[in-house]
Write a structure and sequence with these properties.
single chain, alpha/beta, 7 strands, globular
Length: 306
C-alpha cells in the first residue's frame, strides 16, 4: 500500500479529488451557505478546480465525455433566457452602463447552478398558489407568475365541481420602483403571448415598507382580512399597492384555512419571514392530520434571502 501510494500518481490523486468533492458536498449544505456564503462562494471555485484536475489525473488522462448540443433546425423554436438585474455598484453597475452606452451589448456569461427549486409536484398542480417575497427576492416570484399567466390561470371552461386555480403574490419592498418594473414586465409578457386580463385569478399585493412608509403590523395596527394592515393606495387590474408590512402569519393562515383545496406556498426572504411562513404551514399540515377544517394539502418551498 505504501509503495503504491509513493509510486503511483493514480492512487493519491484520487484521494485529493475525493477530499475536494467532500468539501463541496459539506459546503453546499443550506445552513453552511447561509452562515458562511461569501467564504464558500470563493473557495468552492478553487475546490471545483482542484477536483477536476486531480480527478483527470486519477483517471490516468483517459477521462472524456460527449455533450450533445441541441439546435433548432428552422431557427424559430429556440427558447429565450432572460436575466433581470438590479444594478447597483460593481459588476451590475458596469453592466447597466454598458447596456445604456451600447444597446445590444454582448458579454460572455458563466452560469453557476442551479442549486434548488420546487421539488416534487410543480406549483401548477396545486389549487391555490401563494408566493411571499421580500426585496429583490421578488424576482423569484416572476417566473411562477409568468407560468401561471401562460397557463391561463385556470382550466379552460371549468365544469361543475371542477376547481379553478388562483394565485396570490405578496411582495414586501422598500423600493417603490420595483412594483412599476414588475407590472411592466408582466404586462409585456401577457401582450407578447396574447393573454387576456387575469384579475379574477391573480392578485399581486405590493407592500411598500420604506423609511417613510407605515410600519404597522399585527402587534401595532388594525389587522385587516388578507394580512394587509392598510387600504390599497393604487389598484390596477391584478396589482395593488399598500403601505406597511404584510402580516405573513395571517396571509398563510387564511390561505390554508380554505376548505377542500390544495395549497402550494413559496417564500423567499429573511429568516424571520421564513420562520413565520414555516410555522403557519406546519400548523396547517397538523390540522390536516387531525382532519380539522381547512386545506386538504399544503406544500412549502422556502429560499433564504437577506
Amino acid at each position: 500500500m505504501v509503495t503504491v501510494w509513493n509510486e503511483s500518481v493514480v492512487y493519491w490523486t484520487g484521494v485529493v479529488a475525493l477530499l475536494a468533492q467532500a468539501y463541496l458536498q459539506v459546503g453546499s449544505l443550506s445552513w453552511v451557505q447561509a452562515r458562511y456564503y461569501e467564504f464558500f462562494k470563493v473557495t468552492h471555485f478553487i475546490a471545483a478546480l482542484v477536483f477536476a484536475i486531480f480527478f483527470f489525473l486519477h483517471c490516468d488522462f483517459r477521462l472524456s465525455s460527449c455533450v450533445p448540443v441541441a439546435r433548432a433546425a428552422d431557427g424559430k423554436s429556440k427558447s429565450k433566457l432572460v436575466f433581470y438585474v438590479h444594478s447597483k455598484g460593481g459588476l451590475t453597475g458596469r453592466l447597466a452602463k454598458a447596456a445604456v452606452a451600447q444597446p445590444g451589448y454582448r458579454a460572455p456569461v458563466l452560469l453557476d447552478g442551479p442549486y434548488g427549486g420546487v421539488r416534487g409536484n410543480p406549483l401548477s398542480s396545486y389549487d391555490q398558489h401563494l408566493i411571499i417575497t421580500c426585496g429583490s427576492g421578488a424576482a423569484l416570484s416572476l417566473g411562477f407568475v409568468m407560468e401561471f399567466a401562460l397557463r391561463g390561470g385556470s382550466v379552460p371552461s371549468p365544469q361543475i365541481g371542477e376547481k379553478i386555480r388562483s394565485m396570490r403574490v405578496i411582495i414586501a419592498t422598500r423600493d417603490p420602483l420595483l412594483s412599476e418594473w414588475y407590472e411592466e414586465v408582466l404586462l409585456n409578457c401577457m401582450e407578447d403571448n396574447g393573454i387576456a386580463d387575469l384579475s379574477d385569478n391573480l392578485r399581486i399585493n405590493v407592500c411598500l415598507t420604506g423609511p417613510n412608509r407605515s410600519t404597522e403590523n399585527s402587534s401595532s395596527g388594525v389587522e385587516r382580512k388578507g394580512g394587509i394592515s392598510s387600504e390599497p393606495t393604487r389598484v390596477a387590474g391584478f396589482l395593488a399597492k399598500f403601505t406597511g408590512r404584510p402580516i405573513i402569519a395571517t396571509v398563510v393562515k387564511e390561505t390554508a384555512l380554505q376548505p377542500g383545496i390544495s395549497v402550494g406556498i413559496v417564500a423567499c426572504g429573511p429568516s424571520g419571514v421564513l420562520e413565520e411562513t414555516q410555522s403557519e404551514a406546519a400548523a396547517a399540515q397538523l390540522r390536516i392530520l387531525k382532519s380539522a377544517p381547512g386545506a386538504c394539502g399544503v406544500y412549502l418551498h422556502t429560499e433564504l434571502f437577506s
